[in-house]
Each structure stands twice: as structure tokens, then as C-alpha cells.
Amino acid sequence: MTSPWLTVLGIGDDGLDGLSASARALVATAELLVGGERHQAMVASTAAQRLTWDGGVHRAAAEIAKWRGRRVVVLATGDPMWFGGGANLAREFGPGEMTVIPHPGAYSLAAARMLWPLADVACVTVHGRPLATLHLHLQPGARLLVLSRDGDTPAQVAALLVERGFGPSAITVLEHLVGRAERRLDGTAESWEHARTADLNTLAIECRPGPRPRLLPLVPGLPDEMFESDGQLTKREVRAVTIAALAPLPGQLLWDVGAGSGSVAVEWLRAAPRLRTAGGAEARAVAFERDAARCAAIARNAEALGVPQLEIVHGEAPDVLAGQTGAPDSIFVGGGVARAGMLDRCWDLLSPGGRLVANVVTLDAVARMIEFRKRHGGDLGRLAVARAEPVGRLTAFRALMEVTQYSAVKPWVS
Predict the structure, then answer these.
(1) Element containing residue 206 per DSSP (H, E)
(2) Angstrom distance (rounded) from CA 371 to CA 342
(3) pLDDT tens across 229-262, in order?
(4) How far apart are CA 17 and CA 22, in angstroms?
(5) What 3-state DSSP class applies to 410?
(6) Residue 118: inside a domain, yes or no?
(7) What residues make up the domain containing 201?
(8) Which of 82, 81, 309, 39 is nearest to 202 (CA)?
(9) Between these two residues, 99 and 84, which has the higher pLDDT value?
(10) What pTM was computed for the model?
């Protein structure tokens, strides 16, 4: 059995001084040295050819593959398997080709500086990801370690915390951990005074709510007023039952057809476990909506509620469904069920073992459901919700429109 020819080597801000003798020997004897500009600068001289880590992992992997069988070393920040280059390259090269040598990463180093047990901390990154992702993690008493995008990130995070009603939250910026320029800045979100910090920094946040925080629990059924809507909104109680029927799972794909305000897709992503599959896939959702103004509202809802990765497609279903990449694991039909062929088209496109859920209020749509159920089976249920509202000087229950829900699992191909 041949030895792995590709080594992914974790390195800290202290450069080669922080590596073991054997790790330094790997760098010294490499024929190809791969890394970002900052990493390359840590190796003042080398006989190796250099490849700067830019243009995305696939481009770099293609170049690295040309050196198969020769001595290749990739320098990656900290632990290469945690939001690092090693995790990406492991999808391209197998264990017979590649070895990973980790270094204490930013999360471990920051937890050590803060004396926070790492197991009790949420580790988040906004490096290469939208800042709005943080909305998903802001809860009273939560501790977050956040990989920053650049020196503007701390001030932007402080502003986001204030906007969410978490102004008293403690913020610590840890710059250049274990490097010669290591520095610590402390403050609160509402009094943050540092317009910019060093680009290489990690944030430690202790979430403390103010008197009126906007709290967003992760369980389905957010208050209706949390969503921007023109009235096309799956109501809170029905939405919670709908998410349960759709059963979000790690790495799966949801289509929200006739999305309206996008509330079901948003809550599906919020409820989907953050785990990735073995292939590295995260849960995804696509919202299909024919009205352009509603598409814009969906985007704003996704941003405000912490799932900016929600994909939005403007167009009329079922025609717009053709040509989409990837078969969905779940489909929710919130509009257009009465349209001829809608349920059949969705069923055809659904993955085997996938779930189809549809909500309707009109008799025409119920008739379509009943006819579809005769051919494909499944469950029908009726959801009736009444809310207490003022009636003059008194209070009475006022019923919302009843919702008929259809749900079915597509059989596996035998």
C-alpha cells in the first residue's frame, strides 16, 4: 500500500514556530506548497513550487490532482477539518491519498482564552457566509464563538445584536490568536466603539437580552407577526403542524410551491438539524412564487429569521418546477392545488421515500386532493383553529378558515 502523497497541515498565526519538527520537515521537503497568501508568507523560502489557495476548492483540487503521487503540502488555518480546507479536500481525495495534521483552531484557542467549555458553546462562522446566519443562534444566555469575515465584522455583529434587542451582550474580539500581534478587545454590543479591528479575528459573544428582545425559538410556529406578508401566510398553528408533517432531516431538500410569504420554507430550514450528511450536504429549501413582490418579501423574511440561504425562484408552478437541479425530499404545496396537474407533477418530481404535504381551504382544491388520494393513498386531515378576539367590550373565539391537509410518502422504487 502506498503512503498518502497529500498532507493538509494546520498552522497558526505563529507560523512555522508553532509546528512540530516533523511538520516543519514536511513543509521543507514539499514539491508543491499550497496555501493562501498569508500562509505562503509564513514560509520565507522553499524549493517547492507554490500554489496560492484561491478561486475555490474545486479549482485548487484540480491543480493539486495534477501532482498526484508527488509530495504536496496544503497549509490551512488551525484545524483543517472544521470550516477549513481539509474538510473540502476530503470530498475530493480519499484516506489512501491524504493525511490531515490538525493544529489548535480558532474555536479551541478562543475557548481557552475565554475559559469557556467548548462543549457548551455554539461555534459559528460568517467567513464566506451571510451575517444574518447569526439570527439563528441568538438566545438568552447563549455563548457564541464566531469566525469573522474581516475587521468590519465585529461592529456589524454589534449592530445586529442591538437591532435584535440584545444590546447588553458582551463582545470580545480576539485578534491574531497565538501570534505576535495577539490582542483582546472587550465591550458590549450597545456601547461598541471599535469601528474596525484586525482582519484576522474571532468573536466571543455572551448573549444578554435587553428589556425588549426579539426572541426566535427554533421550534416551528413563530408568531405570524414575525413574517412580512400581504396576507398569503400559513398561520402559526397550521404552520407548526405542517412542518411536523414535512419532517425536516439533515441534508434534505424542500420545495415550497406557491410559497406566499415563504413562512413554511423559512421554518423548515430553521427546524432542520444543522448536521451535514456524509457527503457534506446541508439542508436546503427552494421557495417557488409567481408574484415578484412576494419573492422580495420571502427574501427579507429569510434574512431576518436567520436562514438567508433560502433559494427563491420566481415563476408559475407547476411549469417553473421543470429543469430544477436535484429531486426534492419534501414538497409543500401551499397554493395552486386546484390547478389541474399540480399534485401529479409534484408527485412525479418527488424523490422516492419523499413526503408530499398540501394545505387547502377551497372545496375545489379539496376535490383535487380526494381524487389524488384515491390513486396514491396518503392521509387527509382537517385543521380548525379559533383565536380569542374582542367582541365589543367582551371576548369570544373567532374561527379561522378551516384547512384541509393532505400528506403522503412516495413509495420506494422496488
Answers:
(1) strand 201-206
(2) 12
(3) 999 999 999 999 999 999 999 999 999 999 999 9
(4) 12
(5) coil
(6) yes
(7) 107-206
(8) 82
(9) 99
(10) 0.88
